[in-house]
Amino acid sequence: MARIVIIGAGMSGLAAASRLATLGHRVTVCEADGTYGGMVGRVERDGFAFDTGPTLLTLPAVYRDLALKTGREPLEELVDLAPLAPESRHVFPDGTEAVLPNASRGGVAQALDAAFGAGSGERWGEVTNRGRTVWEATRRPLLEEPLPAEPLEDPYPRPARRGLSRWLPRTRYTLADVARRELGGHPGMTALLAEYALRHGLTLDAPAGATVLPYMEQSFGVWSVRGGIRALAEAVYRRCEQRGVEFRFGTAVTEIVVEGGRARGVLTADGRIDADLVLSSSDRPGLGLPEPSREPGRIAVLLALRGGRPAGTAHRTVVHAADLARQERALAEEVPPLRPTVQVLRPDDSSLVPDEDHEAVTLHVTVPGGGERGTGGDAAYADHLLDHLAAAGIDLRERVLWREVRRTDAVPVPSLAGGRINPPNDSGVPGLYLIGGGAHPGGGLARVGMSACITAGLIGPA
């Protein structure tokens, strides 16, 4: 049995702790804050509750595996999961609407034919088929296994070149090329493709391999958790407690102790904690992970509304930018975009509201990074967003009881979609492993869970 210290009680720390304790190790988790969950936060006020980090779950198989490997029970016995139905409703600037079913690529094709005309669904399907090729080429090395030594090239199978273009040097192939050459420059389908990228802070200049993002969602589905994603963090924390994990909250690690070229423990304000192995999910200087780069962030507007949720309302509605090119320029110039693409999240979950005569709604917008995280200004921008939604037919302004505006991190860019390659889980320092959003295979609920699984596999049983 190894003595293991984990720095950070975010989702990666919780997932790693539960797996390693199940394997027979003695695990202690040090967390600087007073609670667990990391970015999976929560705001509660006047009977309303809001997630302040991730709000939906993709690739639930990651946490299904965790539940089975640490307790031999299905995830559905730990949390109440439900697939979104529909997956999303899309409102485009010209008034066109498209309602996309969940986990049905054939159904998506039919919806796009209905919205944009016959043949649209077939074109979109050809693009997502190429996204499937990216998924199959990168899933194991960039998600499920330790980071490969050799970098992978974008495996997107670009269409054959014709005419004189065959003799020109091959250039980088981007989502903009996909939109122009494979989607015929159709504004609606271009906006749809761009929205999947935008959620991760990408633009149409991203590599064509980012088509894996719509492929994944439309193939494997999008899920909600009753009580919000915070309920998932609570379930994994309970599993840690059942497996005997020790938690030390309010205990910031100031240094990883390396002696004789090997990690031997950590230093905290309360003293040294000796360990045989250290796992770090912290990007604070000196704690293993590199400091995060300046990337686009996200503004979340939490809306407490009078009046119940209208029947038939989609959980997720996407109001697309009035001018996609203008939005991308604003992000490049690091100014908040006007009339941007907005995700409107309206869960049908009675546990998040005081009663059936109220509704909890969250707006998400990708904005330039570098703003102050947490509660702050941006009130005027929130007003602008509400006006923008009203012009698109979603007028919530007169129903607002109170609101809170928060800046958070954007959903991290997966490496398989052209994002940066994070450091490997084996740090190169014996006894020190890296987990979490800053380590392989990257950030986001699914990937930090994979990070914990890979690292537990590297360490093995007691």
TrEMBL record:
GO terms for molecular function, please? oxidoreductase activity
Q: Which InterPro entries match?
A: Amino_oxidase, FAD/NAD-bd_sf
The protein's matches in SUPFAM superfamilies, at most eight in alphabetical order, are given as: FAD/NAD(P)-binding domain (SSF51905)
List each coiled-coil range. none
Q: What Gene3D superfamilies does the annotation carry?
A: FAD/NAD(P)-binding domain
Q: Name one Pfam family in it.
A: Amino_oxidase
Q: Where is the Amine oxidase domain?
A: 11-457
Query: Per its record, how is this protein called by name?
Result: NAD(P)/FAD-dependent oxidoreductase
